[in-house]
Amino acid sequence: MRDRSFAPSRILIYLIVSLIAAAWLAPLVVVVLNSLRSNEEIAQASMIGWPQQWAWNNYAVAWSGFCVAETCAGIRPYMLNSALVTIPATIFSTLLGAIAGYAVSLWRFRGDNWIYGIVTLGLFLPQQMRLLPWTIVLRDVGLINTLTGLVLIHTIQGLSFTTLFCRNYYVAIPHELIRAARIDGAGFFRIFWRIILPLSGPILIVTVIWQFTHIWNEFLYGVTFTTGQQQPVTAALIALSAAVADIPQHGVQSAAVIIAALPTLLIYLLGGKYFVRGLTAGAVK
Amino acid sequence: MIWVPLLLSAAHLISFSLWTIWISFTPSTLIPVSGWVGLRNYSAVLASRNWQIAFDNLLLFGGAFVVLSAATGLILAILLDQRIRGENVLRSIFLYPLAVSFVVTGTVWSWLLNPGLGIQKLVHDLGWTSFRFDWLIDRDMAIWTIVIAAIWQSSGFAMALFLAGLRSVDADIIKAAQIDGAGPVRIYRRIILPSLWPITITVAVIQLQFAISTFDLVRALTNGGPGIATQLPALVVYDLMFQRSLLGRGAAAAVLMLLILLAVLLPYAAWRYIQRRRAAHA
Q: Which residues of B are less than 8 Å from A125 in CB distance?
């Protein structure tokens, strides 16, 4: 099986793998090509085809021209919303997760295992169990339909993941290091900033990539807690497909889909290795 | 100060879950109200056609998706494990759908599977006019379009886990089997695949957990249609809570989702516990 000499079977393997890879890439290729075809061309032919005329204009319209509901500002404001939610929520949840992970792994306290167990429960509990309480809480504190509200939710919810990632990484740090620093009189945060954080590079990259992808792609909270101009880009994409159901604009929609997927695709291309590590770290709990 | 993030996270998980459970026993409709209606919300949800279809769909979708995505992932992993050139590029290709949101995935697949726009139209235009691939608008088959899109999106994840498992099989045992004259098929069947059982179970549980909470993918691909043919529990919860303003029933449906999830997770937790005990004694 791990034999390079038997040629025909290896050719077969390459053939099968290339076919599957082509099938896996096909949806992306189709959308990219469609983003460069005019709406009329797609309506006349099909979604699958080579552009007759390159309609670069689709991107301009998708970015700042088409109308969702009554506003015709394209996808730009929703991309901005997503960025304004995703960036702070990623930073906050990662930083708090690092502190929490450090607390449960190296700065033990009574009942820490219990609290850590409950926090990781958040990985399993369906989001639907928390929708109503979040609605009520956000309304009571006046954050319903605000980006700040979404940042708050993603920060707190994200702690389940970030704490787990960081804790699993920090348990490998020798306790003696912490003990020595404590004897020297260093406190919790001093040790965190001076010792723990400088050691945390690899796990922080994993956590940031994971959280960014997760929060950017999130839809349920966005559509539940925000409306209209406050929605993140995932919710806007759904609103867009509903809005253009009568007069199909698949060229422009394809461009919008590409733009919306670009941030996480770029992150994946740049940090694929860490993305996979985060994935498997979340899996092999 | 130090424990604030931890306590915040733990406290909200516990209190919010209890809160939803409590609401599920109240007569709440538009706003949460106190009161006690026993299991009335639950019986109303369980008796509704929406939920029955959603539950049947979940069994079909969950079962088909878990088996097929694990199988696809395993095949991909075995192929990539043959020391082929360009493994890194191929692995990236199989994994990239995971980085994309379900909203995007669902939208794109709704175009590809749309008989008037996608694959069926293409084949018709090529001259094979009797070709039919209209599952998206077929009541009985529409649920399979969700299976297809979900497999495309998630089997890379199964592949990554299986590949890690394949790479950790003891090379000496394989070499010994080769010396004994065992062929590749036999080595896979007798040595390598049996060692992947723990990973297979982990993959299945995680994918099932994903299937139970599937929402965005269906919302973007079929929006539960045609009619309510691709309804899933997560959509029923959303519909009851935010479109029909039946908070008590929505909460009951959410609790039912949790119970379905526990039916999967509790046996898994027990299995993990036994495995660990056994490992500790060995």
A: 13, 17, 258, 261
